[in-house]
Amino acid sequence: MTNTIVVVGAGVSGLTSALLLSKNKANTVTVVAKHMPGDYDIEYASPFAGANIVPMATKENARWESRSWPVFKRLTEEVPEAGIHFQKCHIQRRDDDLRNTANATFPDSTFDPNPWYKDLFDDFREHEPSELTPGYDSGCQYTAVCINTAIYLPWLLGQCLKSGVVVKRAILTDIRDAKQLSHTGNAANIIVNATGLGSLKLGGVLDTTMAPARGQVVLVRNESTPMLICSGTPDGRGEETYLMQRAAGGGTILGGTYDIGNWESQPDPNIATRIMQRVVAARPDIAGGKGVAGLSVVRHAVGLRPWRKAGLRLEEERLDDETWIVHNYGHSGWGYQGSYGCAEGVVELVDKVTNVAKSKL
Ligand SMILES: Cc1cc2nc3c(=O)[nH]c(=O)nc-3n(C[C@H](O)[C@H](O)[C@H](O)COP(=O)(O)OP(=O)(O)OC[C@H]3O[C@@H](n4cnc5c(N)ncnc54)[C@H](O)[C@@H]3O)c2cc1C
Ligand SMILES: *[C@@H]1O[C@H](CO)[C@@H](O)[C@H](O)[C@H]1NC(C)=O
Ligand SMILES: *[C@@H]1O[C@H](CO)[C@@H](O)[C@H](O)[C@H]1NC(C)=O
Ligand SMILES: *[C@@H]1O[C@H](CO)[C@@H](O)[C@H](O)[C@H]1NC(C)=O
């Protein structure tokens, strides 16, 4: 039996799902989306990510991130045109943030002093006191990667094309419309819902547990390594300090914010100033010791992470007698670092519902 699959969404979740689904030649895959790689729009989170690999899941939910890391490692080693490079990552913690998690910026396990992910990376180690960023009480480091999303997303789309996926623009008012959008002309028997946050406006049941986790960043030409991720900042809840240098002339992303419920699409100049001041304080070399004035800004930007109260939704749902929806949305701040693991989960669910359909014949 062949599956006629329509994936709604061309962010990292939709494209990675489409790519892995297309590897099974029994599947014909169409991607339909309002926004495509190359677009910069507040309804499209993927271009705004750093993106780096800083695991955020709990140990129980480690599967998505731990299955994705080996793929990114291989791509970095073997596929330079994907726009990913290795970079050391320094994670810095304040004792106050660990004690009082209500004040911590990232609502995740990243800053666990004994994290599950220490075994995921080859060279994880705790920091000596002398290695810490001033203002932080402990930290660790490991070799991760930084993905230049401006190169990676078009590359990923190209991999889909090479594998026979057909990609089309469409604005859906109802997810059920996807059924008629396969390039084959056949009705889809599988729809993958990878619409991120955008689909709050999409017809069907509103998932009211979805909200934006607003991320404001500054992209600068100046460079500094290693990557830096801090558990909290002196500027209070919702603000973050991080820095990562993108591969292949992509500049350096300075962050940031993680502000749940805030839909503002325009960069706030005061927030931008605070981000630059914090990064320059932590890493004076990035601005040649000249402070914020030493930075050369490419652009200020805002992306809305697709946050979901209960976390990721990766599950199947029956739409009608012949059609299933496989949901893959709600990745908040870890959409890249979990992309291959989640897409593998989509493939498993498609196989499962296809077998259910087969057993009924
Ligand atoms: C500032 C910032 C920093 C981040 N840093 C990292 C990081 O370092 N590492 C990491 O792993 N992640 C990071 N993330 C998170 C990551 O960007 C997201 O988790 C990921 O991009 C979500 O991808 P997605 O494909 O689910 O959604 P999106 O990229 O938002 O894609 C949604 C797609 O669905 C389409 N769509 C929606 N509604 C409709 C409709 N009605 N009709 C047709 N199409 C529709 C859109 O057009 C789009 O193509 C960061 C995010 C931000 C904002
Ligand atoms: C944490 O938040 C509480 C309440 O807002 C505040 O009183 C306290 O000073 C904060 N602690 C830190 C370390 O920021
Ligand atoms: C698809 O996912 C969105 C969240 O991104 C959700 O609001 C919507 O209800 C889902 N569509 C269907 C048909 O379940
Ligand atoms: C920051 O980068 C710009 C552009 O590459 C460069 O002209 C400038 O000198 C850099 N600043 C410092 C302090 O190195």
UniProtKB/TrEMBL annotation:
PANTHER family according to UniProt: D-AMINO ACID OXIDASE, D-AMINO ACID OXIDASE (AFU_ORTHOLOGUE AFUA_5G11290)
Domain FAD dependent oxidoreductase as annotated: residue spans: 5-349
Key words of the record: FAD, Flavoprotein, Oxidoreductase
Cofactor: FAD
Protein family according to the UniProt entry: Belongs to the DAMOX/DASOX family.
InterPro entries (alphabetical): D-amino_acid_oxidase_CS (IPR006181), DAO (IPR023209), FAD-dep_OxRdtase (IPR006076)
Gene: DAO1_1
SUPFAM superfamilies assigned to the protein according to its UniProt record, in alphabetical order: FAD-linked reductases, C-terminal domain, Nucleotide-binding domain
Protein name: D-amino acid oxidase
PROSITE patterns linked to this entry: DAO (PS00677)
Pfam families according to UniProt: DAO
Organism from which the protein derives: Neonectria magnoliae
